[in-house]
Amino acid sequence: MSEMLMAPDWQASRWFNTQTPLNLAQLRGRVILLHAFQMLCSGCVSHAIPQAERVHREYAGDGVVVIGLHTVFEHHTAMMPVALEAFLHEYRITHPVGVDVAAAGDPIPATMRLYGMRGTPTLILIDRTGKLRLHEFGRMDDMKLGMRLGQLLAEEAEVVAGQGRRIERR
Amino acid sequence: MSEMLMAPDWQASRWFNTQTPLNLAQLRGRVILLHAFQMLCSGCVSHAIPQAERVHREYAGDGVVVIGLHTVFEHHTAMMPVALEAFLHEYRITHPVGVDVAAAGDPIPATMRLYGMRGTPTLILIDRTGKLRLHEFGRMDDMKLGMRLGQLLAEEAEVVAGQGRRIERR
Amino acid sequence: MSEMLMAPDWQASRWFNTQTPLNLAQLRGRVILLHAFQMLCSGCVSHAIPQAERVHREYAGDGVVVIGLHTVFEHHTAMMPVALEAFLHEYRITHPVGVDVAAAGDPIPATMRLYGMRGTPTLILIDRTGKLRLHEFGRMDDMKLGMRLGQLLAEEAEVVAGQGRRIERR
Amino acid sequence: MSEMLMAPDWQASRWFNTQTPLNLAQLRGRVILLHAFQMLCSGCVSHAIPQAERVHREYAGDGVVVIGLHTVFEHHTAMMPVALEAFLHEYRITHPVGVDVAAAGDPIPATMRLYGMRGTPTLILIDRTGKLRLHEFGRMDDMKLGMRLGQLLAEEAEVVAGQGRRIERR
Question: Across C25-169, where does the E strand assignment appear?
Fold first, then answer.
């Protein structure tokens, strides 16, 4: 999937850590970090999930929205929502997490299929205008992620500057 | 529990990574590392379980037997044996793991209760004569664990030396 | 020192890893990461120097110029240029490093004094127009550094966009 | 060099962190960890030296004597005793460190030559009777080092047990 197409919306059958379901339209104007994971995927647990949680805790105030998506495509009976809920509690995850919608007769859930994800963890960045700007499978290091987020966040300053105003961020 | 009493036997309703159930009597003469964990305990997943697996892979040939015990005392529905099985597969755990026996009307399983464990992870070392030599709750660092294992392993040399023979180990 | 002033030029009595001395004027248009260190400062050796080297290796092609400055303010006899040269060789440092100019009768070298640095490591970011945008003493984590670099790098796109052209970077 | 020969004595032209020079004879009955390093060897600085310091701080009370030996075989002018002294101060090294004696016309110092060391870091373990029990070049992990130290420390219990007394250690 090209990285400059409009990002398709995700589908979630259930949400944790948010009062209301989240969708792309309501987040327009923000930079979105969407990370797809499975609670029994060791690379997700050791790296991708804590990294996403950290972005949520440190950069939510700068305009980054972090969303987890539980894309179970194997060991389905071991990763039911009741297990996910215990997992999120034990790992102290505070950012919103949706459960990717199961598709009839397909082990791969709907959003995972829609985005063409290759596995977990997958990291997706969507810019302030809703365009897909990064889609990466596997571990992403902190510096590279920071670099990409910094670039996407700066795009607001650009637009705002064109309107005669500039916002500096630390 | 004093650290020089005989270790009580564990009780497991099911085993993974072993053809036959394991018990203390059949392991007499070996140094036993028994680690109690829960698959959704983050300190277990990040440290205690990989540490135990490493001891198994590197020191089984020196006479250390590593046994995991899944002592579920919370989130029971999230950590059923089917979930544990997926977990062991995903985390590539190859050492034997038993499921601590549930006790009727008690959230704490039988062996956990019997040993008076305070939580997970708990690390227990049993010497070649079946005595309990270490019982520690929480994270144990590699050097300290190596030191204790080295001391317990050396006790064989001691006995054997008394019989006029000495074994050198790497 | 305010973070929006023009950055003053550094002074170096000697350079390593560059054919010609470097100065601010010739780097206008690039984002500059200037890191002040001492070869016997443990926080520099374990974190700041390898972090800077990594930015050099991975982001030089994106327009970041990394410059080390050896700001010796203690143990002067132990950190002479001959020792620094051996250090740079042993630690495989490939980015340009200047030796901050000693000031007569002052243990603190000239650039360190000029910038008002509090110690080592100190990290300084200078934007494409020569303005000082970050001045931080101590350890900076990778994600935060990436974020700041990403923002500064994006400022080129902003200017160029105003000229009717846009550059996308990976 | 076989690992069961008597360890030869080291030669030091100068000592740090000890009032009096140390030699093997006076340490008989203790387990000795001798680590050879260079202050500009990155593997020494990041791993071997802090590991040795940690053994010193945590296990000196159990009968382990930790000794560093500065075996400079390259960049001699960069690693003079004045530089070593600053290094030990900056890295908060508290265990005794000797400077290996320079040999006329040989870049390799005397003890390094005598022990046939291949480079730095080198780790040597000497048992309570003065025998060389381990001689390893390169990085040694904490668990393996703990294991070897535990075995050597246990040999005291063995001897003492033969005299009708037993000492338990934590």
Answer: 31-37, 64-70, 97-100, 122-126, 132-137
d(CA C138, CA B153): 45
Chain C and chain D touch, per 3+ beta carbon pairs within 8 A: yes
Check D82 against C85: CB less than 8 A apart: no
Tell me the helix, strand and coil percentages in chain A, rounded to 5. 40, 20, 40
Type and span of the H or E element at D76: none
ipTM above 0.90, yes or no: no
Q: What is the pLDDT of residue B21?
A: 97
DSSP letters spanning C41-68: -HHIIIIIHHHHHHHHHHHGGGTEEEEE
Quick one: DSSP state of residue B43?
Answer: H
3-state class (DSSP) for residue C77: helix
**C contact chains, 3+ CB pairs < 8 A:** A, D
Of D42, D46, D86, the CB nearest to C40: D86
Which residue from D27, D29, B79 is spatially nearest to D10, judged by alpha carbons? D27
Any idea what the Cα angle at residue D13 is, between residues D12 and D17, rounded to 5°?
70
Residue D34 CA to residue A25 CA, distance in Å, equals: 65
User: pTM of the predicted model, to two decimals?
Assistant: 0.90
Contact D137, D37 (CB under 8 A): no
Considering just the CA atoms, what is the radius of gyration of chain C in Å? 16
Cβ-contact D110, D103 below 8 angstroms: yes
Query: For B85, phi and psi rounded to 5 degrees?
Result: -60, -45
pLDDT tens sequence across C7-41? 999 999 999 999 999 999 999 999 999 999 999 99
The DSSP symbol for B92 reads T
Place of tokens 């949520």: A56
- Mean pLDDT value across residues B55-73: 97
Establish, for the pair of chains A and C, how many residue pairs have beta carbons separated by less than 8 Å: 77
Helix ranges, A3-141 (H): 42-43, 49-59, 81-90, 110-115
**Structural contact between residues B154 and D159, judged by C-beta atoms closer than 8 angstroms:** no
Q: Determine the Cα–Cα distance for residues B48 and B123; give it in Å rounded to an integer.
A: 8
Distance CA B132, CA B6 (A): 6
